[in-house]
Design a protein that fits this description.
The structure holds 2 protein chains of 2 kinds. Chain A has 1 helix and 11 strands. Chain A is mostly beta strands. In chain A, the strands form 3 sheets. In chain A, strands 3-4-11-9-6 form a 5-stranded antiparallel β-sheet, with no helix packed on it. In chain B, the strands form 6 sheets. An 8-stranded antiparallel β-sheet of chain B has the order 14-13-10-11-12-15-22-20, with helices on both faces. In chain B, strands 3-2-1-4-5 form a 5-stranded parallel β-sheet, sandwiched between helices. In chain B, helix 7 crosses helix 8 and helix 12 packs antiparallel against helix 13. The chains are: A mainly beta, B alpha+beta. At the A-B interface, loops of A face strand 3 and helix 3 of B.
């Protein structure tokens, strides 16, 4: 996957609009690391994970057999970022640990959930717009 | 009843108690449980259980947004918060209301007002309630000035505290000086509010509280009082109703004061107005109001014959109180013991674990047991250690004590340590029998 100048500008615009302090995008073909307001030319990675940052799926858990992506929180499960939009992932999709697979809404706060595992989605286990409980399997994944 | 389905945002024995009240009223109920409580008794008895988060309360039972989201997602039209956790959290009350869900408790403004000890004192003063002499102090010099006027000892209290938290006792100038800075720092870190007030210390006091109920139509009644003087570090162990060894005129004045305060603060639903009663003179002073169902509500249920949790749900439904003050009568005496999973011999260390055996005698007349425990149940380390409440109701105090005593002796618990021996020892003690109990009695008697 190649990254155009336009893509980079778009990424920067998204970061500008968010309250992210730091963003790291890494694939096989490229790596983009952006730090907002960094004073150092060589930003040192923060030693403490940003536990208050809601927009990530680091807490999403994968069960012992690596077979499911479980809800890291109770909330309303959304497969796409807006009604009518294409789902983040569908059966057959290839995911990386940081691939966003769904949103979980808790009192109007949208939390984007990452796969936490690399593999292929083989089943979507929860209904769109339904309540999902903490720990409930959302997707079944065939590990890579 | 307009309500159809109640979300129970709690665990343990009180969640079981609320399930039973819902059953009584023909209401469906959904229990919001943490992961570790998913196979608990309340979860099993409810129509549905949803896992609201992992075991630590900060990620489950203490999260108002998860509770409201779960209630919405399960089609509930009311949230019962029980006691502890979010029961007196104004945000849960407000968030529920914003989302069209009835909160089984007072509105957020009332919870906030009652939770601010300084403003609550002002309300009490305006309502004509006696207050322990004291005032807000911004500086150490002001606290010292108060102490020199009233004499030592004095209590330093955090305005945002309550339930025995945020209180320091100073016996003299030196101690006051050393505690003042700590008290300010603690008030700020623990309650986010560094305001302090100082008050005279009533050394030999009994803790007596008045149960009130208020509906949305403006009706307010009291359901008598309870004595909860057997405490350790402000944690109650044994409660009873009516309060024993209390002159009738004091009892009448207390219950009237409880109603007056509930009216003045605009109270709704069930609540408790707490007082301290000077053991020597019988003089009483307003302490604080608790905006929730209390752990010890069964002793009041026993002597009034009323189901207080069902009454809470009816009030939340918008119904007027199901009884008037005149219709309430009091019969007999009730004593409650709180059985906890604590190792008394090791400084009351919590004793969590899996219960290999839990059985309470079922053939004792006048005994009620509220519990979520059974063979195989887990007492998790994440929450408070209350296992069961043993309530004895008899014609008189001695009979009530005897009932609970027999229950404690015949109780079978294996797998965790409990305080059953201590509870029985208190019931056996001549001081308890003769009413020579103050809030310090237990700690002094154990030395």
């Amino acid at each position: 996957m190649a990254l155009s100048d336009e893509d980079v500008r778009e990424v920067l615009r998204l970061i500008d609009e968010s309250d992210l302090a730091e963003l790291l995008i890494e694939t096989d073909s490229f790596k983009l690391h952006v730090v907002r307001g960094a004073s150092s030319q060589f930003p040192v990675p923060s030693s403490q994970p940003e536990t208050n940052e809601p927009v990530n799926g680091e807490r999403s858990t994968v069960n012992g057999h690596g077979a499911t992506i479980d809800a890291p929180m109770l909330g309303t499960f959304y497969r796409a970022e807006a009604p009518g939009a294409a789902p983040f992932v569908d059966v057959g999709a290839r995911v990386e640990p940081d691939t966003t697979v769904c949103l979980i809404e808790v009192m109007k706060m949208m939390n984007s959930i990452s796969a936490g595992v690399a593999g292929t989605i083989v089943e979507v286990c929860a209904d769109n717009a339904a309540l999902v409980e903490f720990g409930q399997p959302l997707f079944r994944v065939e590990p890579a | 009843m307009a309500l159809t389905r109640v979300f129970i945002a709690n665990r343990g024995e009180i969640a079981v108690r609320i399930v039973r009240a819902c059953r009584e009223l023909g209401l469906e109920c959904v229990v919001g449980a943490s992961q570790i409580d998913m196979d608990g008794l309340a979860a099993e008895l409810a129509d549905r259980v949803v896992c609201i988060g992992p075991a630590p309360a900060g990620e489950s039972y203490l999260r108002p947004e998860l509770v409201v989201q779960a209630a919405l997602g399960t089609g509930c039209d009311a949230i019962h918060p029980g006691y502890g956790f979010l029961a007196e959290n104004p945000r849960l009350s407000a968030l529920a209301r914003e989302n069209g869900i009835r909160f089984v408790g007072p509105p957020s403004e009332v919870i906030e007002l009652a939770g601010d000890k300084l403003r609550a004192r002002e309300v009490a003063l305006e309502a004509g309630l006696p207050l322990v002499p004291g005032r807000e102090v911004a500086t150490l010099a002001a606290a010292e000035e108060f102490a020199s006027e009233s004499g030592y000892p004095v209590l330093l209290k955090a305005a945002g505290g309550g339930g025995g938290r945020g209180i320091k006792l100073a016996h003299g100038d030196e101690e006051l000086r050393s505690l003042f800075g700590i008290a300010v720092a603690e008030a700020r870190s623990a309650f986010g509010d560094e305001r302090l007030y100082v008050e005279r210390y009533v050394a030999d006091a009994r803790h007596v509280e008045v149960q009130v109920a208020a509906d949305e139509q403006g009706g307010v009644v009291h359901l008598g009082e309870r004595d909860c003087s057997v405490q350790r570090r402000y944690q109650k162990l044994i409660e009873e109703a009516p309060a024993p060894f209390l002159p009738e005129r004091t009892r009448d004045a207390l219950t009237a004061a409880g109603v007056a305060f509930a009216r003045a603060i605009g109270y709704r639903n069930l609540g408790t107005v707490e007082f301290i009663v000077d053991a020597a003179g019988g003089e009483f002073f307003f302490l604080e109001m608790n905006c929730r169902i209390q752990v010890e509500h069964p002793v009041t249920e026993a002597v009034t014959g009323r189901d207080l949790v069902a009454e809470q749900l009816r009030i939340a439904d918008g119904q007027p109180l199901s009884f008037t003050q005149d219709e309430l009568s009091f019969e007999g005496h009730a004593v409650e013991c709180r059985l906890t999973a604590e190792d008394v011999s090791r400084g009351f260390a919590p004793s969590p674990g899996r219960l290999t055996r839990f059985a309470v005698p079922e053939d004792i007349e006048g005994l009620r047991v509220d519990t979520h425990c059974r063979d195989g149940a887990l007492i998790p380390p994440h929450y408070d250690s209350l296992m069961a409440k043993l309530i004895g109701h008899g014609a008189g105090r001695d009979e009530a004590i005897e009932i609970v005593h027999e229950a404690l002796e015949r109780l079978e618990v294996e797998g965790v340590e409990t305080n059953a021996g201590l509870l029985a020892a208190v019931l056996d003690h001549p001081d308890f029998a003769h009413g020579r109990i103050t809030t310090h009695w237990l700690e002094e008697a154990m030395v």
